[in-house]
Amino acid sequence: MLSKITVQNVALIESLELDFCSTLNILSGETGAGKSILVDCLLLLLGGKYDKSILRFGCTSGFVEGFFEDDKKIAEVLDEYGFEKDESLIVSRKFFDTGKNEIRVNGKLSTTLMLQKMMGKLVDIYGQNEYQSLAQKTEHLRILNYFLRTELADKSKKMRESYMDIMSINRELRKVGDAKERAQNIDILQFQLKEIRKANVYGGEEDELLERRKLISSGEKIASSLNQAIANLSEGESSSQEGIDSAISAVKGISALMTRFNALYERLNSVSIELSDIIDTMHSELDDLEFDPKEFEKIEQRLDVIRTLKRKYGGFSEMKAFEKKSAELLDTMENGAFLFEKLQKDKTKKLTECIALATEISAIRKKGAKKLQELIKTELADLGMAGADFVVEFGENPSKDDFEKHLTSDGFDRPEFYFSANKGQPVKPLVKIISGGELSRFMLALKTVSSKSDDIPTMIFDEIDTGISGKIGQEVAKKLSIIASNHQVLCVTHLPQIAAMADNHYFIEKKVKNDQTITTVRKLDLLSEIEEISRLSGAKDISAQATENAKQMKNWSNEFKKTLT
User: Which of 140, 208, 401, 544 is the most buried (most CB within 10 A)?
Assistant: First the structure.
């Protein structure tokens, strides 16, 4: 459960820290006091998108932290997502005026997506967007699957695996293609492989050819320079070689006199040897400059071949990879008729398995849908909609020939919720006719039904009281209390009936501090709670009986909660 939340610099909130109980926590306050701000803070803890517009004016950074504890589910979730097992969980988000934000889970950095997945197993939040999701037909299958998650678990897993197998077979069939397409592809692959193999390019060949071409094109200049250098170093009385040899003879006579003169003699000998080697090397380079007149043309032709291959297939490594892949594909294509027939047989067999499996899943759903219908109608009756009717429509099962067109990883069902709010009126698609007040009650009925087997520890309700009042508000309060007997519940409300059911009640209000408007939240004691219930009823300062009525409402709520223990 969410034990504590800490908030700094979010909208009108400067700083606050709230401790929640494990049952029903109610948050109320005047319109505009900041109830939605607190919900936004909770959403950030669940992986909601950060928008820098929520940062308190004049601040460069803000912070939200939630401390979750006392639930074995926490250890399971931490272990599942690669965190060290622990019985408590700290989620923190620090955000900045630049639009950036930092997420940490038990001190370790996390991504928004990972946070969403983790918290989705620990907290359910029901606000305006969640209620509106009921107005999307695609959500109806998800809701039904969740209600039947235990009964469907094994078969749904097999269905997903079979569906992926069929998708894989279809991909292979597209690769192989039909006979005409296959023949065309074989011709193309054969041509490409022949072109690559005939060229027989090796790694580094292009660089070698470019170097050789450069040598040939500069041959005359190179030869002239080398001949001049050789002449200066070794030809005539004034050559470098002649001068060094004379110097060696001159120093040789004094080399035995002192160590340093001997060192000079040795160094001159080394220079003579190095110079001789340089001259030999230049002669060798000159010999290499004897080119075949047609060699330059041959190099250009070879470079053209390599450039053509590069344009088509990429550099040497890319070309070799293409050659290997194409050879494998060609082998597949050349055996295509056999492979195509085998894949078709595999697909027919897998489709037959899927039809049987999807039919079994559909039967479970239809049976479960009838149970869900009755449970929902019972809950709706408690919520003042005794004449309401609710039906899950499935339509006709697809024929064997059309099965694949209707196939998904969930099978072939496309259930849709049909609804009628009034006795004697025909049911119609819920997405078209349900009103705001009916929608919130329908969602509450749905959660009351599922909460008995739901293992999500914390549920947050925002706007659950939309469009309801009076006696129905009292029934909604009872449903929330029933849910809170098995789950931690946080509920933002403006109804006194719901507020009276609180185990912990928090009051959200705006104040002016140092010429700045701030939102504060305080936990109410019993006297303050009675006062707030009176205010929510609209009778405070109008009727002398308002406080007494609030007390009676609170006493009635306490008596009801005793019946749940």
Answer: 140
The structure tokens listed for 478 are: 């009872």
Structure tokens at 257: 């006199």
Which SS3 state, helix, strand or coil, does residue 342 take? Answer: helix
CA–CA separation, 319 and 312 (whole Å): 9
Supply the pLDDT for residue 359: 93
- How deeply is 489 buried, as exposed, middle or buried, from its count of CB atoms within 10 A (0-12, 13-18, 19+)? buried
| pLDDT at residue 540, rounded to an integer | 65
Q: Three-state DSSP class for 10?
A: strand
Q: How far apart are CA 464 and CA 492, in angstroms?
A: 8
pLDDT of 278 > 60? The answer is yes
- Read off the pTM: 0.65
Which conformational region is residue 427 in: left (phi greater than 0), alpha (psi within -120 to 50 degrees), or beta?
A: beta
* pLDDT (0 to 100) of residue 176: 74
Helix, strand, coil content of the chain in percent (nearest 5): 60, 15, 25
Chain region(s) in the chain for CATH 3.40.50.300 = 2-134+454-562
pLDDT exceeds 70 at position 127? no
CA–CA gap between residue 65 and residue 70 (Å, rounded):
17
What is the spatial distance between Cα 466 and Cα 494, in angstroms, rounded to a whole number? 9
In CATH, 2-134+454-562 is 3.40.50.300: yes
Per-residue pLDDT tens digits for 304-321:
999 999 999 998 999 999
- SS3 of residue 505 by DSSP: strand
96-118, pLDDT tens digit by residue? 999 899 999 999 999 999 999 89
Residues 6+ apart with CB under 8 A from 51: none
CA 163 to chain centre: 22
Tokens for 311? 């344009």
Plot region of 518 (φ>0 → left; ψ -120 to 50 → alpha; else → beta): beta
